[in-house]
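Input structure tokens:
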């Protein structure tokens, strides 16, 4: 089996997608961050010293989604048509579940963009309350679903 990101001389290359058909592509990813009750309460009560944590995390997730090709070497720069970020409170953990959906009409998928957005959003939460809890854990960053493209649909 030939690897798609190596040329005939085994040098890294970006895959040529110019012959692929444009299709509507959507990817949804999610991840969790668990933390101490004090950190959770500071976020919920909007008393974290660095400002509004969840709002900042949403902006960071959107920015991370848009910057994926600058961070992941073989990702194509994409003309995204939509990005949405939702954060669900998980008081039983305590913590938060962050979800990103990315979409476009294009020749390559948006899974990496959704996953990168989730990762950057969760890292932003960590950064903003690390003074309260350095033991926070980011976990379960995963693709939830994708649609479009040659490989078809996927749902976890």
């Amino acid at each position: 089996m030939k690897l798609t990101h190596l040329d005939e001389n085994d040098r890294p290359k970006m895959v040529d997608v110019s012959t692929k058909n444009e299709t509507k592509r959507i990817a949804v990813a999610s991840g969790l961050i668990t933390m101490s009750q004090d950190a959770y309460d500071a976020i919920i009560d909007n008393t974290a010293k660095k400002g509004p944590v969840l709002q900042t995390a949403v902006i960071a997730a959107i920015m991370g989604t848009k910057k994926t090709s600058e961070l992941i070497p073989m990702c194509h720069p994409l003309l995204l048509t939509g990005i949405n970020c939702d954060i669900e409170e998980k008081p039983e953990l305590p913590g938060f579940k962050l979800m990103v959906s990315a979409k476009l009409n294009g020749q390559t998928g948006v899974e990496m963009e959704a996953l990168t957005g989730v990762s950057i959003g969760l890292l932003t939460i960590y950064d903003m309350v690390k003074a309260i809890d350095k033991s926070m854990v980011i976990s379960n960053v995963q693709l939830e679903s994708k649609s479009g493209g040659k490989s078809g649909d996927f749902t976890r």
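The longest helix spans residues 111-129. The first strand starts at residue 23 and ends at 34.
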